[in-house]
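Problem 12. The chain below contains 155 residues. Write out its predicted structure in token notation.
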Amino acid sequence: MSAVQPLAACLFFVSLLGCLNANGAEALPIRSLAKGAFSGIKAAQRYVVRDAGQWETLWKQHSASAGSAEKIPAVNFTKEMVVVATLGTQRTGGYSIEIVRVQRRGKTLSVAVRQSSPPPGAITIQALTAPFHFVAVPRSDLKPEFVEADAAERK
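Solution.
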């Protein structure tokens, strides 16, 4: 058993170091709450929700026009907060938005968001869409900074 303890400690520290990348940013775990193409939120938005009242208001707006009977995802706001990314109303399908990474970077919370749109000439659904992604991350008072995922990966 004595050989197992040093090995376990070594693996623990290696996993901690894996959370820090070369530029000193600490990756935070992401829990996807909801993602899709049809939201009642018609404007492009990116922000953080830190309390249950704001979350309920957001969810009502999201589910109102979408005709969704889906229950509001549970969030423990003493330990978590919700990061919101919406693309706004689009004239066709084929658009998407995704929160791909959240990192503590100095005094900011860096949120990498990936947007995609259909290529020219693509066959898409001919309906209004409003892509969205909501994720829960560990609670933080850091100021959020939203960056495009591809630009963040080049840094």
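Discussion. The longest strand covers residues 96-105. Students who got a different answer should revisit the alignment rule from Section 12.3.
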